[in-house]
Amino acid sequence: MTDRITKSIELRAPVERVWRALTDPTEFGTWFRVRLEGPFVPGQLSRGRITHPGYEHVVWEARVVAMDEPRLFSFTWHPYAVDPAVDYSQETPTLVEFRLAPTAAGTRLVIVESGFGALPAHRRAEALRMNQGGWEQQIRNIRAHVES
């Protein structure tokens, strides 16, 4: 089993546009389907409510690690933490990195989520599988958001 998920896409939008879609809380919330309570701040916890149908009960939380404009936005979170009866806070979170690079057509966006190997064994495979599918959807969501 792998310890990471990697997704890469070329977007027909300038780096500055993609950066804004990733780091502005309203824009991020639109394509990621989460209503955030405030801005992203390195070192701080960001919280919100998932707006994707069927997951509205989920509180989204991530700790911002880096905002190196316009190249890297990263955060840690507890992957596939969707059961409100479970306390995920003692688990080691995974690291999500959004890396941007200019291309002739716009922007290369690479998303890497790593650290699945540190998850409890009973959750590891399901979290990896669900987030693999989740990132496939989010790649489509951000494309539609920045190319429209």
UniProtKB/TrEMBL annotation:
Source domain of life: Bacteria
Domain Activator of Hsp90 ATPase homologue 1/2-like C-terminal: 12-147
Pfam families the record matches: AHSA1
Signal peptide start-end: none
InterPro entries the UniProt entry points to: ASHA1/2-like_C (IPR013538), START-like_dom_sf (IPR023393)
Record family assignment: Belongs to the AHA1 family.
Protein name (record): Uncharacterized protein YndB with AHSA1/START domain
Lineage, opening ranks: Bacteria, Pseudomonadati, Pseudomonadota, Alphaproteobacteria, Rhodospirillales
